[in-house]
Amino acid sequence: MILITTPGKVGLEAARLLAQQGKDVRVLARDPHRAAVLEQEAVQVVEGDLDAPSTIDAAMRDVKAVVLVSPAVPAQELNVIAAAARAGVTHLVKVTSKASADSPIARQRGQAQIEAGLIASGLGHTLLRSNFYMQNLLMLAPAIARTGRFGSSAGAGKVGFIDARDVAAVAAEVISSPATHLNRTYLLTGPELLSYSDVAATLTTVLGRDVAFEERSREEDKQAMVSAGVPEPTAAMNAHAVSLIADGEAAWLSDDLPTVLRRRARTFREFAADHVTAFS
Ligand SMILES: NC(=O)c1ccc[n+]([C@@H]2O[C@H](COP(=O)([O-])OP(=O)(O)OC[C@H]3O[C@@H](n4cnc5c(N)ncnc54)[C@H](OP(=O)(O)O)[C@@H]3O)[C@@H](O)[C@H]2O)c1
User: Fold this and answer.
1) How far is the CA of 210 from the centre of ligand 1 (A)?
2) Which residue among 145, 179, 213, 256 has the highest number of C-beta atoms inside a 10 angstrom radius?
3) Of 187, 173, 7, 11, residue with least CA distance to 91
4) Domain region containing 200
5) Claim to verify: residue 158 and residue 222 sit in the same structural domain
6) For residue 18, what are the contacts with CB-CB under 8 A and spacing of at least 6?
7) Same domain, 116 and 146
């Protein structure tokens, strides 16, 4: 049995891919309705909370492999790692981002703490360290649909955007043949470096109408995220992370995805074409 710890962007798609390969998959969900889309697939959905270790222990029954993907709150993910060790799990795939104990970004410090806990646990593991997800741009979609414009403090900085569906595909591949990927770290990106102006140009082509990018301040970015419903501390952290794009923080690419999946990563143009309705 494979346990996937949340039905978010990566977790839902990984569950779907694994179920289609005939694997036994269970998804832990705080609200099982969020995983309703999996009803068509042979996926077990169990109610649980990453803040409640007893519910994680219950979800670990007969589990040999875990895909750990969540908002990366250290106490929650360390709960999962401890429960996996108790349950005799043999391999854990952790979805992560840049991680550094002295980063100004709290999430990156948290990821470093979680990764250190995972290594100390002695569990067989694989780290999937991804660049920014293309799906982050969906937060801008309502503004793009309404005004044909969007803003960001990323400036002219470039990003190796990756489609979260591709992160899920790598997680599914690795958890299906863990011995090949034991204790490896994969750097996951899309195939190209794009600035936000490049994103606007691609959207203009795909949507068939003008989309313009305008630079804005980190504070304006934060307020836009708060208006979109993101809690204030998370919006502040995310806006800070986006502002670092201007300094080249996300200007990196890797061939790890094509090496693991034996296919190329999805392009932003493909992502945009798949999400025309959201941007329109
Ligand atoms: N976004 C990016 O650009 C990016 C880039 C690189 C790496 N990452 C990493 O990707 C990971 C996030 O993955 P994702 O984007 O797939 O997540 P996501 O779509 O944001 O989904 C998060 C999931 O966690 C669930 N959740 C939150 N708190 C919970 C709790 N206490 N107990 C149980 N479930 C809980 C949420 O459930 P509800 O629906 O009930 O809230 C939701 O299903 C993080 O480690 C992040 O650092 C993200």
Assistant:
1) 32
2) 213
3) 173
4) 131-163+189-252+265-280
5) yes
6) 2, 4, 25, 172, 175, 176
7) no
The CB of 6 under 6 Å from ligand 1? The reply is yes
Q: Which two tokens stand for residue 244?
A: 């670092």
Centroid of ligand 1 to alpha carbon of 71 (angstroms): 4
Ligand 1 pocket, 270 CB below 6 A?
no
**What mean pLDDT, rounded, does the chain reach?**
97
Q: Which helix (H) or strand (E) holds 65?
A: strand 65-68
pLDDT digits (tens, 9 = 90+) for 171-221: 999 999 999 999 999 999 999 999 999 999 999 999 999 999 999 999 999
Question: Look-up: residue for tokens 């690419």?
Answer: 253
What pTM does this model have?
0.97
59 lines ligand 1 (CB under 6 A): no
The answer to whether residue 259 is domain-embedded is no
34 pocket-lining for ligand 1 (C-beta < 6 Å): yes
